[in-house]
Amino acid sequence: MDTNVPAREKIAYTGGLLGQNMLYNFMAMYIMFFFTDLLKIPTQSVTIIIVIASLWDAVNDLLMGMVADRTSTRWGKFKPYLVIGPVLISITTILCFTNFGGSASNTVILGAVCYILWGMSYTVCDIPIWAISSVISPDQYQRNKMVTLGKVGGTIGTVIVSVGSVLLLNALGGERTANAYTKSASIIALVGCILMITTGLTVKERILPAKKGVPFKKNIHTIIDNKPLLALMGSLLLVNLVNNLRQVSQMYFALYVWGDAGYITFMGLSLVIGMLFGMIISPRLIQTYDKKKIFIVACVLGSFFSALPFIVDATNVVLGLLSLGFSFTFTGITTIVSTSMLMDAIDYSEWKLGFRGEGIVFSTNTFLNKLSGTIAKWFLGLSMISMHYVENMPINDTVQKGFGFIMYMLPAICFLATILPILLYKMKPKEINSIREELMLRRK
Question: Where are the membrane-spanning stretches (predicted)?
Answer without folding.
Answer: 12-35, 41-59, 80-102, 108-131, 152-172, 184-203, 224-242, 262-282, 294-312, 318-346, 367-390, 402-425
